[in-house]
Amino acid sequence: MNKVKVDDKVLKLLTILRLDAQRVFERVKYREAEYMHHFSAKRTRDHFPEVFKNRYDEATISDLLLCGEEVIIGLDQFFFKVDELKWYLMVTNDMPATVHEHVRHGIRELEIAYDILQLYINAELESLRSREPAEKIDAPTLEMFPDFK
């Protein structure tokens, strides 16, 4: 039978999600001048999918079930703000000055959601690291469910 250390999986998942949120936040905040200049000068939105690209979109319900409730809520709030800003930039017909102001406001909101998410993830990571090593449990296999076809 396949043995899996649950805490190790959770630690790795939380680390991936924390780094994913960090990279998205850094691109949105610190590359604002670049992507806004490109948007204003060329009137194209082709670069926005790369700015807002993230791994959270690929997370499954099974992955998220490994996370604590606060982390799940924090992820939802953070990536909702990411999606809200991306959607605005993809569909807006506002003038450049209005777009710049909206983006700056969106980044401030995103920063608050990011800080809260980091707090939740770091607290959960610390809690997991301070516990005794988890018992190894049997990972489900098809052999465990003989009636499943």
Question: Your description of this structure?
Answer:
The protein is mainly alpha-helical. Helix content is 68%, strand content 3%. It has helices spanning 6-30, 32-42, 48-51, 61-64, 69-91, 96-130; strands at residues 3-4, 137-138. The chain has a two-stranded antiparallel sheet.
Keywords:
149 residues; mainly alpha; two-stranded antiparallel ribbon; 6 helices; 68% helix
* SSE succession: EHHHHHHE
Q: State the distance separating the first and last CA atoms.
A: 19 Å
> What gross morphology would you assign?
elongated
Structural class: mainly alpha
Helix content estimate: 55-70%
Rg calc: 20 Å
Alpha plus pi helix count: 6
How much β-strand is present in the residues?
A: under 5%
User: How many DSSP E strands?
Assistant: 2
Q: Sheet bearing the most strands, described?
A: 2 strands, antiparallel
Identify low-pLDDT runs.
none
Concise structural overview:
This protein is 68% helix and 3% strand. It has 149 residues and is mainly α.
What is the topological layout?
Layout: E1 3-4, H1 6-30, H2 32-42, H3 48-51, H4 61-64, H5 69-91, H6 96-130, E2 137-138
Antiparallel strand pairs: 1-2
